[in-house]
Amino acid sequence: MSNSRLEQISAQLDSDSSRDRMLALASLRDVPAIEAVPLIKKVLDDENLQIRSMAVFALGLKQTEECYPILVKLLENDPDYGIRADAAGALGYLEDQRAFEPLSRAFYEDTDWLVRFSAAVSLGNLKDPRAYEILIKAVESDEVVLQQAAIAALGEIKATQAVEQILKFAQSPDWLVRQRLAEALGNLPHPKTIPALKYLEKDNHPQVSQAATISLQRLAQ
């Protein structure tokens, strides 16, 4: 991107108008990471929470060496739970294996369910089998959204040893939990997987039955 355009975006990020700053941040979508990250950093402490959230998310997509330490610091220290959750999510997008430890700590130590949810999802994105114990703990949570995240993530890390434990969710009253189960089973070949998917294929929610059909097709290949 031309220097003049970058200077224009930089000036817009300094605008008193939150709308201008938001538009400037959105316009970095097509800017190479090495040029975008210094500009994103300008609004990481913005007074507008939505702009901060967008900036944190952007660091997960525009990957440079700077992004990982910035996101870990936000995950561990930011007073706003929404920003900590955004940082956890962005670390999953980076797919940097170093994130396993900070994400694990966030899951165990953060008091807000949204941060723990984002940490569980991102542990799945890392596809690191070490996440198994954490995700099994999340499956046992009373928070339905944590159950959803953990079941999906167990599929991502291909934890076939979890199959028997997650099959009890085939009769969950929450259809999204059943859908996540159907999707996860497509990555978990096990003697009980096919019968479970055939059961879920008859589910009365179309998205659950469709997910089960897709998983059966994947396993057949």
Structure description:
With 221 residues, the protein is mostly helical. Helix 6 packs parallel to helix 8 (113-126). It is built from 14 helices and no strands. The mean pLDDT is 96. The chain folds into three domains: 1-64, Leucine-rich Repeat Variant (Alpha Horseshoe); 71-157, Leucine-rich Repeat Variant (Alpha Horseshoe), CATH 1.25.10.10; 162-221, Alpha Horseshoe (Leucine-rich Repeat Variant). The radius of gyration is 20 Å and the shape is elongated.
**What is the CATH homology-level superfamily of the largest domain?**
Leucine-rich Repeat Variant
Cα Rg: 20 Å
CATH-defined architecture of the largest domain: Alpha Horseshoe
* Helix coverage percent: 55-70%
Number of domains: 3
CATH fold field value of the largest domain? Leucine-rich Repeat Variant
CATH domain class of the largest domain: Mainly Alpha
Q: Specify the biggest β-sheet.
A: none
Distance between termini? 44 Å
Number of helices: 14
Unreliable residue stretches: none
Assembly type of the shown chains? single chain
- Indicate the mean pLDDT: 96
Q: So what's the overall shape? A: elongated
Strand content: under 5%
Structural class: mainly alpha
Give the number of DSSP strands: 0
SSE order in H/E notation? HHHHHHHHHHHHHH
Annotation keywords:
single chain, 221 residues, mainly alpha, Leucine-rich Repeat Variant, 14 helices, 67% helix, elongated
How is this fold's topology laid out?
Blueprint: H1 3-13, H2 18-26, H3 33-40, H4 49-61, H5 67-77, H6 81-94, H7 100-109, H8 113-126, H9 132-139, H10 144-156, H11 163-166, H12 175-185, H13 193-200, H14 206-220
